[in-house]
């Protein structure tokens, strides 16, 4: 009965009691989970799960913000009730002074107003208490009090001055500036990937950031998203802790480990490159804030007063640099080619985090940890992890379903053509593919069916008239150059950084006859597709 009464009272304010219970229960479950995991880690002699602690903080902040709004409504209602009661009491006293107390009816307007106002005020106070006003106010995190402040640096000078480790230089890695980003890439790595050289990796322990600044940045970035009304899902992602180098044209993989991480860590590190954060002692900010994160220290090391050096993804034996402390979530991108040799790309919606409003590859995204969990323990080829993730991203973003068989997606063959680290995303690793699909362009246009979720990020496909011609290497190179000219001529549309890098990777592959022939054979191959 008490729960039903509270639900009705909260409903008056537009607040649903069951929603309140659900949120509080959800928060309580998170607290119990984190406490239990921390107990297990303490018994095992391991450090606390800071990522889970960050998750709990975000849940607390969401709960606090909603409760603050509800308490405000209750207090406003209480003030209105108190005012009505006071005004009614004043008029009641005036009536008593004119006549007598016995002559004043209890059903007169002043009497009713006095009693009703008092009941409303008391009910509102009880309601505010029911919403735990005091506990909400006491539990309000420093973040909501605006003790943290961040801003993105302007200009690219800081990024362009970053130097590369010696091993990277030996592997022909160079820093390249694009219209919408900065990346580090190696043409020799691209050619080795096309040649089909294996990259062996194994699953490592879960990644836990060691830098205390990471969690303050995480707090701020997650809080920003909540304030903006964004729907945040902290999905588990796959982290690369391996450097891909070359020696005499052959791939050399250092360390070869993939780890579990999550979207919050990605947001706080990879997507906070160049994001400067200060912490203030009080809300008024009368004292200058203390620098929490300079936007670069997680993925670079200062070697001189005016020079930063890019940290490797692993602990290189020949380097004294520590490994990158960023999430380094593995990204994948692909350009898809139809059976009639047409290319189509996607145009991202403005709301997209990575390439909002830009022309992007046919499919792009990040590798989920669920993809790694499907693979056996021990060493396995990295492409066994990347290719299923790449196929999923293409099918989701481009909305591809087999014509006449909506329950079965179209089959896609993939060929790796490049690798890069995106400096504007804290050196985040990105792999690039060329994809071949067993359907013509017209068939694809008829069978597209985006999910409601992918429609939030993809604004549709963009097709091109120029067809690739894989009948010879000369024809392939000429048709590729003509295609790129057509892509760059699309009016009023910017090209995303991943698409720019992919174009550069394919250019490097087509430079040598050996790798150009491999790409040509892949495009005109009539081999069976996976899953057919």
From TrEMBL:
Keywords: Membrane, Transmembrane, Transmembrane helix. PROSITE patterns: NUDIX. Residues 327-474 form the Nudix hydrolase domain. The chain crosses the membrane at residues 72-94, 106-131. This is Nudix hydrolase domain-containing protein. It comes from Falsiroseomonas oleicola.
């Amino acid at each position: 009965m008490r729960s039903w009464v509270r639900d009705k009272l909260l409903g008056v304010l537009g607040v649903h009691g069951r929603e309140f219970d659900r949120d509080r229960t959800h928060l309580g479950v998170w607290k119990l989970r984190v406490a239990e995991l921390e107990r297990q880690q303490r018994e095992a002699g391991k450090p606390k799960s800071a990522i889970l602690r960050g998750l709990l903080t975000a849940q607390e902040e969401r709960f606090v913000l909603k409760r603050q709004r509800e308490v405000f409504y209750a207090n406003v209602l209480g003030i209105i009730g108190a005012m009505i009661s006071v005004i009614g009491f004043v008029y009641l006293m005036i009536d008593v002074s004119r006549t007598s107390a016995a002559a004043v009816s209890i059903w007169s307007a002043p009497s009713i107003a006095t009693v009703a106002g008092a009941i409303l005020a008391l009910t509102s106070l009880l309601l505010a208490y029911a919403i735990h006003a005091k506990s909400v106010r006491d539990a309000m995190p420093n973040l909501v009090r605006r003790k943290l402040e961040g801003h993105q640096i302007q200009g690219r000078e800081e990024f362009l001055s970053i130097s590369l480790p010696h091993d990277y230089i030996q592997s022909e890695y160079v820093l390249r500036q694009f219209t919408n980003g900065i990346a580090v890439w190696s043409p020799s790595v691209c050619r080795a990937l096309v040649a089909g050289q294996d990259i062996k990796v194994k699953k490592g322990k879960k990644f836990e950031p060691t830098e205390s600044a990471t969690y303050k940045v995480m707090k701020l970035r997650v809080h920003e998203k909540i304030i903006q009304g964004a729907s945040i899902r902290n999905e588990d992602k796959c982290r690369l802790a391996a450097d891909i180098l070359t020696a005499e044209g052959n791939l050399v993989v250092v360390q070869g480990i993939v780890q579990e991480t999550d979207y919050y860590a990605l947001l706080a590190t990879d997507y906070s490159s160049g994001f400067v954060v200060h912490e203030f002692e009080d809300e008024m900010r009368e004292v200058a804030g203390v620098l929490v994160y300079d936007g670069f220290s997680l993925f670079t090391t200062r070697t001189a007063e005016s020079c930063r050096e890019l940290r490797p993804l692993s602990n290189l034996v020949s380097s004294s640099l520590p490994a990158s402390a960023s999430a380094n979530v593995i990204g994948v991108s692909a350009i898809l080619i139809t059976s009639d040799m047409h290319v189509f790309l996607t145009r991202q919606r403005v709301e997209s985090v990575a390439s909002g409003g830009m022309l992007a590859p046919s499919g792009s995204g990040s590798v989920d940890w669920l993809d790694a969990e499907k693979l056996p323990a021990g060493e396995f080829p990295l492409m066994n992890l990347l290719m299923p993730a790449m196929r999923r991203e293409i099918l989701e973003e481009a909305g591809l379903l087999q014509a006449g068989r909506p329950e079965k997606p179209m089959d896609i063959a993939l060929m790796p053509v490049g690798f890069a680290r995106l400096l504007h995303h804290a050196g985040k690793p990105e792999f690039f593919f060329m994809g071949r699909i067993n359907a013509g362009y017209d068939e694809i246009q008829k069978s597209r069916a985006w999910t409601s979720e992918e429609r939030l990020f993809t604004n549709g496909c963009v097709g091109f008239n120029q067809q690739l011609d894989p009948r010879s290497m000369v024809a392939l190179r000429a048709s590729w150059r003509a295609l790129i000219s057509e892509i760059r001529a699309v009016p009023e549309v910017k090209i995303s950084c991943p698409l720019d890098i992919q174009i550069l990777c394919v250019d490097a592959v087509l430079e040598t006859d050996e790798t150009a022939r491999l790409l040509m054979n892949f495009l005109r191959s009539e081999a069976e597709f996976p899953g057919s």
